[in-house]
Amino acid sequence: MNFSSERRESETAVPPKPSDDRQFSFRDKLVGASVPVPRQETIDLIGKQLAKIDLEEGDRLRPHCYIDDSVVVGRRKKYQEFIIVKLLGKDLGFFTMCDRLKGIWKLTKGFDMVDVGYGFYIIQFDMAEDREKVISGRPCMVFDHCLAVQPWKPNFIAS
How far apart are the C-alpha atoms of 145 and 94, rounded to whole Å? Predict the structure, then answer.
């Protein structure tokens, strides 16, 4: 993701008006995308008997939701290639952390980073080789603080 203060002609154009057959989201109107972002397929898990809801003592305000393991495993699959990083003993802003990691790691391609709170960041690399380089590489220091790096785990909770 690149940020720049310069504007290109395409960015100054007025966002397209929605026609009868297309729907534009708030994001599309804001950034002026000419083609809406494709929506994820909606799946009826209850209809396919992959989920069920039980009410505790018949009380609608205390539902218990049960989801089949196959649904959870399928959703987790994309996260298997992510890593979790945390700078120990110091909190940095998102952009500062991103710039420092780019400088330290010197990757072949780029990466996407998401702040998940409590000083943790989840990172997805554009190349598997870059991920392996970071995980198996020597420990990193950022502003004289150690950077903890580990592969993503399904039971990870930032708090």
Answer: 16
**From residue 52, how far is each of 12, 57, 97, 136 by CA, in Å?**
49, 16, 42, 42
Residues in the chain: 159
- Give the CA dihedral 148, 151, 156, 157, nearest 10 degrees: 40
* Helices and strands in the chain: count of H runs, count of E runs: 5, 7
**DSSP designation for 83:** E
pLDDT in tens, 55-65: 998 898 999 99
CATH 3.30.70.330 occupies which residues in the chain?
Answer: 78-151
Report yes or no on whether pTM surpasses 0.85.
no
Tens digit of each residue's pLDDT (9 = 90 or more) over 115-143: 999 999 999 999 999 999 999 988 889 99
Question: In terms of CATH architecture, what is 78-151?
Answer: 2-Layer Sandwich (3.30)
In a 3-state reduction of DSSP, which class is residue 96?
helix
